[in-house]
């Protein structure tokens, strides 16, 4: 199994698990919370068949990567991505971030620039700023995040059940676009993640990316479902065309948060079209 070292915690190294398949122009896929790089299974073969080198990796704390107690802020997470890009010597790369993964993409471009990056895709994004403040009235009330923190601490497995129900809009799509088995696989992966990471990432979601967005200088596409219950589109994606010049914005009608699974054909078509 391939790993890249991104840091140390006391006596242990912090290692990121990644997979690197195919040949051609590189695409890095950055997964959402609380899953792993394996959650891109409906995109990876399609991109390989289209002539791309496809790299997935597990965020620290998740999947097969190390589970440190530190580093769940976007400066550190973007630095992990930078290490991966440089260790694999990727150039003209397309960065694709889903949900929490959109944060690594935006912070990477803002902090490290676009010398190695050709374009970027944000699927069901966190941006511009998820938490409601006096100067960000479109955000989500802080009490929502406080409630999530309490739920994770009180009973993380039960919280994950409720989260994944809304992740897939199970009440609408169970048995059609999301099977019980696929849902269970997601829960199994989520339950295997670090309990500390699961909690501390909630703080990262509340990062203010508005200044980062102003620094973006590559073509950007946003794709989001209009029935997203995790990151409501009116608080996130629909605000971005006014903040990112030249943004391509694709709305998937009826799409929940997990559009890469439930609406894979539409997501893949948008990705392939944007990459050409």
From TrEMBL:
Claim: Protein biosynthesis is one of the keywords in the record: no
Protein's UniProt keywords contain Ion transport: no
One Pfam family from the record: Abhydrolase_1
InterPro entries for this protein: AB_hydrolase, AB_hydrolase_1, AB_hydrolase_fold, Epox_hydrolase-like
Keywords, in A-Z order: Oxidoreductase, Peroxidase
Superkingdom as given in the UniProt entry: Bacteria
GO molecular function, one term: peroxidase activity
Domain AB hydrolase-1: 26-263
PANTHER family: HYDROLASE, ALPHA/BETA FOLD FAMILY PROTEIN (PTHR43433), NON-HEME CHLOROPEROXIDASE-RELATED (PTHR43433:SF4)
Family according to the record: Belongs to the AB hydrolase superfamily. Bacterial non-heme haloperoxidase / perhydrolase family.
Protein name: Pimeloyl-ACP methyl ester carboxylesterase
């Amino acid at each position: 199994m391939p790993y890249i070292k991104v840091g140390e915690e006391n006596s242990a190294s912090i290692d990121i698990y990644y997979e690197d398949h195919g040949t051609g122009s590189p695409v890095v896929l950055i997964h959402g919370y609380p899953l792993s790089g394996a959650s891109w299974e409906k995109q990876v073969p399609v991109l390989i068949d289209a002539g791309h080198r496809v790299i997935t990796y597990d965020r620290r704390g998740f999947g097969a990567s190390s589970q440190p107690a530190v580093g769940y802020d976007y400066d550190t997470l973007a630095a992990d991505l930078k290490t991966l890009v440089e260790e694999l010597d990727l150039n003209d790369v397309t960065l694709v971030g889903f949900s929490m993964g959109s944060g690594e993409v935006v912070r990477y471009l803002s902090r490290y620039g676009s010398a190695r990056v050709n374009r970027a895709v944000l699927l069901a994004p966190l941006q511009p700023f998820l938490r409601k403040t006096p100067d960000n009235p479109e955000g989500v009330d802080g009490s929502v995040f406080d409630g999530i923190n309490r739920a994770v601490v009180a009973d993380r497995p039960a919280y994950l059940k409720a989260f994944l129900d809304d992740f897939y809009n199970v009440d609408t799509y169970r048995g059609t676009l999301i099977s019980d088995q696929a849902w269970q696989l997601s829960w199994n992966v989520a339950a295997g993640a670090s309990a500390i990471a699961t909690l501390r990432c909630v703080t990262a979601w509340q990062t203010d990316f508005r200044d980062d967005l102003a620094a973006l200088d590559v073509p950007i596409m946003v794709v989001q479902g209009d029935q997203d219950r995790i990151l409501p589109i009116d608080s996130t994606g629909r605000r971005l065309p006014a903040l990112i010049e030249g943004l391509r914005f694709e709305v998937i009608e009826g799409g929940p948060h997990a559009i890469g699974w439930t609406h894979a054909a539409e997501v893949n078509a948008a990705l392939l079209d944007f990459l050409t």
